[in-house]
């Protein structure tokens, strides 16, 4: 059932956004795809409204977060989890953005709940959500100066050797 | 230093607004967080919430620890119902590793998670009573949290930060004393809960203070991504246990209570009814356990399940697995997984990305308290301070989960 719905969602997205929707995957049955920051708001709106088609209707924003991949060209992935509570289907959307200029439009125009989720993502990763009404740090102090979830900031003393992989043959 | 003070833009020199700091250490804030309120007399004109006082970098620490060593971090998130956090994390890893659990373990998990839910709801509902002046109800029902702690203690040795499970099951089986204590709890708790309801449900003062106060519509709740009893009080029957059953919840017969008005009274009623449903679930789980072969408390996955110490000392295989597991050498697939459970406050989600290393590449925790709480300041506008305090009680914000 879920596979059929996922397939239909991918077809609807493909018809609307063409090659802006890429990297479609279904890890553990959860439809995952990538898109670009110039259409992300349209994609979210399209998924939220069930208007023309009967497969979307993802009216619930479960979560917004980010992942830092320093080895990738576009090093920060902003990840959205949406949920269609009626059909019991979830979808995950990723947008890869440049880690040196991490800017993406805000989703607060679609859901008010995105406000703190985006503030948290800004605080931890430095992602700037354009158009956000109140983009300030939320968990850390204002003077912190860094965005601590980026991979370049080690958690512990880098001189410790008891946790280095090379000492364990890895 | 910018303390995120709200800027009140009214330039009227006659205005006599008072800035009131509700928190960070105020008995009515239920934890360490601050609300800077602009007050016109007793009425709140505007407010800004400041959080992060106990932020412990859960996600950052998790990136530096093997799967097993993340368990004690999860206990400290929602410490009022820590077993649910434990189980949620273990189930996420089990989903990643494709571990199928024996039914008996699933039922044991249902018992412990429902006890945790009752414990969480006891705190919330008795404190709503306390904040409306009904201290008796608080003291009366609160002793049953103590009974639940004793059950935890029997199962894992700890009371608050329980560390109760393992990837693949439990560290040990429930002993006879634990079952006896659960049975005693099931016998005594409904009587007390009924009396608690008799004291509050039709109490004139309680109804006046809660009914029609802080109403939220279903649209607003969904817009702010609310889940759990807060969302259900607005009439949306979304419960992860029913929507995406885990741990054999599909085998159980229970109802999802919903409210109609979305006010504080409805939130209170929804939580009370959920406690009744939890009692039902535990009774059913105990019945189902009788049909399962005794003594099974973990799945047969020696490469993932941490062996007992006795085994480690006497069995070479167990020693090797123990070493590999503790050192984080589990062969987990490179994948990403999202798993949600129904916590005391709503949808507890774990988003785990594994790249084949010793530790998660990224672990994100969807915290219902964090997401629910952001509506507090907007919805407090125009409210009386005393109503806002009860509203905060009804939102059941747990600081450990809020800040993570």
TrEMBL record, chain A:
Keywords: Cell inner membrane, Cell membrane, Membrane, NAD, Quinone, Translocase, Transport. This is NADH-quinone oxidoreductase subunit C. The gene is nuoC. GO terms for cellular component: plasma membrane. The keyword Translocase applies. Its EC number is 7.1.1.-. It comes from Pedobacter heparinus (strain ATCC 13125 / DSM 2366 / CIP 104194 / JCM 7457 / NBRC 12017 / NCIMB 9290 / NRRL B-14731 / HIM 762-3). Belongs to the complex I 30 kDa subunit family. It is found in: Cell inner membrane.
TrEMBL record, chain B:
It catalyses: a quinone + NADH + 5 H(+)(in) = a quinol + NAD(+) + 4 H(+)(out). Keywords: Cell inner membrane, Cell membrane, Membrane, NAD, Quinone, Translocase, Transport. GO terms for molecular function: NAD binding; NADH dehydrogenase (quinone) (non-electrogenic) activity; quinone binding. It is found in: Cell inner membrane; Cell membrane. It is a peripheral membrane protein. Residues 131-403 form the NADH-quinone oxidoreductase subunit D domain. The keyword Nucleotide-binding does not apply. InterPro entries: NADH_Q_OxRdtase_suD (IPR001135), NADH_UbQ_OxRdtase_49kDa_CS (IPR014029), NDH1_su_D/H (IPR022885), NiFe-Hase_large (IPR029014). Its EC number is 7.1.1.-. GO terms for cellular component: plasma membrane. It holds the Pfam family Complex1_49kDa. Gene3D superfamilies: Cytochrome-c3 Hydrogenase, chain B. NDH-1 shuttles electrons from NADH, via FMN and iron-sulfur (Fe-S) centers, to quinones in the respiratory chain. The immediate electron acceptor for the enzyme in this species is believed to be a menaquinone. Couples the redox reaction to proton translocation (for every two electrons transferred, four hydrogen ions are translocated across the cytoplasmic membrane), and thus conserves the redox energy in a proton gradient. NDH-1 shuttles electrons from NADH, via FMN and iron-sulfur (Fe-S) centers, to quinones in the respiratory chain. The immediate electron acceptor for the enzyme in this species is believed to be ubiquinone. Couples the redox reaction to proton translocation (for every two electrons transferred, four hydrogen ions are translocated across the cytoplasmic membrane), and thus conserves the redox energy in a proton gradient. NDH-1 is composed of 14 different subunits. Subunits NuoB, C, D, E, F, and G constitute the peripheral sector of the complex. PANTHER family: NADH DEHYDROGENASE [UBIQUINONE] IRON-SULFUR PROTEIN 2, MITOCHONDRIAL, NADH-UBIQUINONE OXIDOREDUCTASE 49 KDA SUBUNIT. Belongs to the complex I 49 kDa subunit family. This is NADH-quinone oxidoreductase subunit D. It comes from Pedobacter heparinus (strain ATCC 13125 / DSM 2366 / CIP 104194 / JCM 7457 / NBRC 12017 / NCIMB 9290 / NRRL B-14731 / HIM 762-3). The lineage of its organism: Bacteria, Pseudomonadati, Bacteroidota, Sphingobacteriia, Sphingobacteriales.
